[in-house]
Amino acid sequence: MRLNFFGGIAAVVIVAALIVAYSSLFTVYQTQQALVIRLGQPVRVVNEPGLNLKAPFIDSVVYIDKRILDLEAPSQEVIASDQKRLVVDAFARYRINDALRFYQTLGSIAGANSQLSILLNSALRRVLGEVTFSHVVRDQRADLMARIRELVDKEATSYGVQVVDVRIRRADLPEQNSQAVYQRMQTERQREAAEFRAQGAQRAQEIRSRADREVTVLVAEATSKSEQIRGEGDATRNQIFAEAFNQDPDFFAFYRSMQAYEHGLKANDTRLLLKPDSNFFRYFTDPSGKVKDSSPPPAGR
Amino acid sequence: MPWTNQGGGGPWGSGGKGPWGSGPQAPGPTPPDLEEILRRGQDRLRRVLPGGNLGGRGFALIALGVLALWGFSGFFRVEPDELGVVLRFGKEVREVQPGLNYHLPFPVETVLTPKALRVNKIDIGMRIVDDIRRGGTTTRDVPEESLMLTGDENIVDVDFSVLWKVKPTGVGEFLFNIQNPEGTVKAVAESAMREVIGRSEIQPILTGARQTIETAVQDLMQRTLDHYGAGVIVQQVQLQKVDPPAQVIDAFRDVQAARADLERAVNEAQTYANRVVPEARGRVAQITQAAEAYKQQTVAEATGQTSRFLKIYEQYKKAPVVTRERMYLETMERVLGGTDKIILDSGSGGSGVVPYLPLNELTRPQQQGRSQGSTGGRP
Predict the structure, then answer these.
(1) A59 and A47 co-located in one domain
(2) Residue B91 neighbours by CB distance under 10 Å
(3) Is A6 on the interface with B (CB under 8 A)?
(4) What is the domain range of residue A295?
(5) Average pLDDT of the segment spanning A24-48
(6) Predicted TM-score (pTM) of this structure
(7) Mind listing the pLDDT tens digit for each residue in B277-298?
């Protein structure tokens, strides 16, 4: 009995000690910060992870995320300073760096997201509305993102939130403007294609003409040279003849005449009317060969 | 960790069976020798209990057993592609490598085992979906992710993949610094790609600048993620498909075709030139050779004729009168031998041939046998 009694007392004491320990100890995880609230009044913020003490029963603990949190803003249409429309889709990354203020002003991450969305959207419109379309897309995207971040961050400080980064994910044209861009791209390509084809025709024509010219020149030069060669041949011929025939022009005349008669008076198409008193016929009428007329026989048709 | 709860409750009043009567369900990742230990513990209990004395010895033994089990619940396994991060009261204390490891049991230490050694892949601009008909996978385009503006206000369709993994030294950062690492990597990738594409012109994007773009996006992503302290390393950015948008791709292809047409036209012309010019050179050779031939022929003929003449002349010089006469007669013989001839004696008056005209009638029988043409052409 005594043993049981003492055992019972010991058990009660142990249980009571455990309950007190449980309610006076709390764990802060690596990803969290903790806000200790005593009867509705915030007393301290625990930033370091680990095991911590609080007053049992009267203190309560609110855990708040310490990590970098996502904020996705829905895409919205922005009008740039040159009146061009853009569909912009941005996101932000933020961190709760003042747990108390955060808890007091926003309370939860969902609340923070909706509040920061509004801030982000207005900053986006304000900053992008001041610059031109091409600045947003091409030239100053990084600068603009930094400016939006600064704007949002400044306002978010009052909520105990630090905006780590704002990035424009998409900055695209609205659908109807995209169609116009497609048409422009298409016509540009068509122009380019036509240009290529025309260039091809031009270069082909150039090559052909150059070839034709070369052909003509080659042939002309060859003809000229050929005439020269032929002339040389003729000249040599004349020289040879002259040298030979000059030895006895009289005999040459005779010899050549004989040849000419023979070749010139062909058997089948020549008819001769001869007088028997020509030199050839001098024996024809007179056996002594006395010539009546010294002229050679005339030829005729 | 039911052991700790039951240790406070004290179910051992209901006899020796206790919680381990309901079977040794090992908590968490169980080392294989735990069952044996349990059985030994039960045996010991049974040896004590038959005495019926639930005294201090028995109580101590039970408490010891509970403690031992609690202690053993700290064993855990880390898979080959994981790393273990041990937290003591929520605070990161150490990292452990794959294999069997131990941490202090539950309320004191816990462990997280992210797949920190695995290389993750994120596809942007497309989704890989299962294709049931073919049994494999196909990619589905996601135009709202893949269509983006270029610096010269064109639109280009870009699909790409990002390979990333947890930094070898940054498991803690990866786990504790950032709410949604995967989503963040994707969002940063999209933003970086659009920023880089927005700075470039469409033509290099479509043709040569893939490598440059990949590197630029990777650098930008890495800088941004490091700024977040995300503990992520971007291993590679791979551009998959870089095309003009579907609406205009035909026009772009036509440009390629036109480029080919240009090449073709030039090649055809070159072919023509390559054919025509050598042909002309051939003709040149022909013309020149013909001229040479004419020259040589002419000279040769002339030489031949003169040498014949000179030979004859040589002989002629020896006996000019006789030779001349002989040559004359021989020639006339040959000339007159083959021709028609009419001999008129001019001595019978000065009227000449007139009385005999027309001469045609005289020779008609012969002419008919030879040539019709020569009579027909006569007036």
Answers:
(1) yes
(2) 16
(3) no
(4) 258-301
(5) 89
(6) 0.66
(7) 999 999 999 999 999 999 999 9
